[in-house]
Design brief:
Strand content of chain A: 25-35%
Oligomer: homodimer
Largest sheet of chain A: 5 strands, mixed
Largest interface: A-B, 66 and 66 residues
Number of strands of chain A: 6
Structural class of chain A: alpha+beta
Order of helices and strands of chain A: EHHEEHEHEHE
Helix content of chain A: 25-40%
Chain lengths: 156, 156
């Protein structure tokens, strides 16, 4: 085990978009889906604005002591009728910078999201993780998540 | 095979809430989570209002030729940075009235949701289905979904 890196979880700003996209791309599954160009394609900024202005979505980053962004996560709070009208939380796009992994940064991000969802009245938090991400599945189980569902997807 | 029942998919109204909750409860997993009382607990109506006023959520029902509500589904459209800023669709709470199953109603609901997500710019539609729902998994595979992910949940 390496030491824990204490991070500050804060709402993402427009200035963080390039760093976030670089983390999304630095991944065996995500790499092929992103376009890392200078300047970054405008679609990323347009998506950021949509997330940023909707209170049901929270895109957050983990910032280290020096102010560097070293992780990200998106939480979606979804109202719905089931479970007596309780909202549900969905966690998406959890990433930690490749040179900062295994220091508890992902854990702090996910714990933040679970706490935030709970504070906002959710009775359930859910996520999909690719079946090939065995380390991620063990990580989430350690944080109290169960492998209760099959995650199914269709891409266009 | 029984005959297909052609249904009309329309946005849910406040008057549909009790019927939707009855369908959510009529299920081996959902039954224990709902409170079917007369009048229905107000939390269901409060949740309906939240869903109804947010354009990112669509709660729809399937209506048969006689105007009876025989199915429901909730679609959530989530903006996000990944996949070049494409939105994602999440399908939740798919139910068909127990006496109207195996007539293609669920298929029409899911095809509506996939088409709507695509029309709204999503590149991906995802859903979680409990690992015990083997019929549901086969159903979604038939509609083009892949069992690509593990669905993980934490309940409070």
């Amino acid at each position: 085990m390496t030491t824990m890196s204490e991070v500050n979880i804060r709402r993402a700003h427009r200035d963080d978009v390039a760093t976030i996209v670089a983390m999304l791309a630095d991944d065996h599954l995500g790499g092929a889906r992103e376009r890392i160009e200078v300047p970054l394609p405008n679609a990323y900024f347009a998506a950021f604005e949509k997330v940023d202005r909707d209170p049901n979505f929270a895109l957050v980053v983990a910032e280290d002591g020096a102010g560097a962004v070293v992780g990200c996560l998106q939480l979606c709070i979804m109202p719905g009728l089931s479970s007596q009208g309780a909202s549900r939380g969905l966690i998406e796009d959890v990433r930690v910078a490749s040179n900062r992994r295994s220091r508890g940064i992902g854990e702090q991000l996910v714990q933040w999201a679970v706490g935030e969802a709970r504070a906002r009245g959710c009775k359930l938090v859910e996520l999909l993780t690719h079946h090939s991400r065995l380390d991620a599945q063990r990580f989430y189980e350690r944080l109290g998540f169960a492998r209760s569902h099959v995650g199914m997807t269709i891409r266009f």
